[in-house]
Design brief:
By secondary structure, the chain is α+β, with helices and mostly antiparallel strands. It has nine helices and eight strands. The strands form three sheets. Strands 4-5-8-7 form a four-stranded antiparallel β-sheet. About 15% of the residues have low confidence. The chain binds zinc ion.
């Protein structure tokens, strides 16, 4: 825990250093070396550079604030941990040796403070690399591989009309939630949740869904099929709290869930160019494996 705080402090100092450098360099005389700053093709207009610099400074300031917030949270969590009586075996649950004393004090401070952290919103570390070597299937590949779910797509959830896909579609309880997905995806997500339940039952109990099957085009596109259309994607959250699309942040519980999904071969939307961290979908590798096994 102390190491994390030190790392955060170092990050704040680095960012603060970067911010100072940025302010000084953007206040200096014009950059004769050309557009090395990478601010695009705006030539000779001081305002363009100034506003870009201002955006960058604001961005850095936000990052510093987020790090400071993170430090404050960690600090209060350390205090909570230090106040807890030392129980047996390092378990979060209060030991029976507490005997006649009612445990409510322990329950209200210790474990709940830790469990509450699952819903907390945090920055996604190394966001663009969270999926490692697991590949996104993509609408083009999916349509070729298993067919288009329906001909005309709108922005709403329309019925699936492709008979082959419809035959594989199942509505089932998969641990803590109910999903409508293709049969092999149901089997896979059931395994994911089994593992979560065995490893982290508190997190498991708080998993919620914001939807799985929805035959529609990707928002903001014309006719690009969303992975949700194929019954191969699910949106999840902790305690029903909706994620903000594209802010580079997610709930702490989702970062833990992502590890379980990755182990089973799923893609996490946190790594998409437009961050979508509540979104989990079946990867290309999984589809190819299912094809080889005759499941799809
Ligand atoms: Zn989604």
């Amino acid at each position: 825990m102390r190491a994390i705080i030190l790392a955060l402090l170092a990050a704040i100092l680095l960012l603060a250093g970067g911010l100072t450098w940025f302010v000084l360099s953007s206040m200096g005389p014009g950059d004769d070396a050309g557009p090395a700053g990478g601010f695009g093709t705006d030539v000779g207009t001081g305002t363009a550079v100034d506003s870009a610099a201002r955006i960058e400074i604001e961005f850095m300031r936000q990052q510093i604030e987020q790090l400071q917030e993170g430090m404050a949270t960690l600090d209060s969590r350390i205090q909570t941990l230090e106040q807890r009586p030392v129980g047996g075996g390092g378990s979060f649950a209060p030991g029976p040796e507490l005997g006649g004393q009612p445990n409510e004090g322990v329950l209200n401070n210790g474990p709940n403070a830790i469990i509450d952290a699952y819903a907390q919103v945090v920055l996604i570390a190394n966001r663009r690399k969270v999926n490692g070597k697991i590949n996104v299937a993509g609408p083009g590949f999916l349509e070729q591989f298993i067919g288009r779910p329906r001909e005309n797509l709108s922005d709403n959830c329309d019925p699936m009309t492709n008979p082959k896909l419809k035959a594989m579609l199942k509505l089932e309880s998969v641990g803590p939630i109910r999903v409508s997905m293709l049969q092999p995806a149901i089997e896979s997500i059931t395994r994911v949740f089994e593992n979560v339940k065995n490893t982290d039952p508190d997190l498991y109990a708080r998993i919620n869904t914001a939807g799985s099957l929805c035959v529609r085009q990707i928002r903001g596109t014309r006719g690009r099929t969303s992975t949700h259309s194929f019954g191969l994607a699910v949106d999840l959250n902790i305690d029903g709290k909706l994620d903000t699309l594209g802010d580079g942040k997610t709930q702490l519980g989702l970062t833990i869930l992502a590890d379980f999904f990755r182990a089973e071969g799923w893609v996490w939307g946190a790594g998409f160019s437009r961050e979508d961290s509540m979104h989990f979908e079946v990867s290309r590798q999984m589809l190819e494996q299912w094809r080889a096994e005759g499941k799809i």
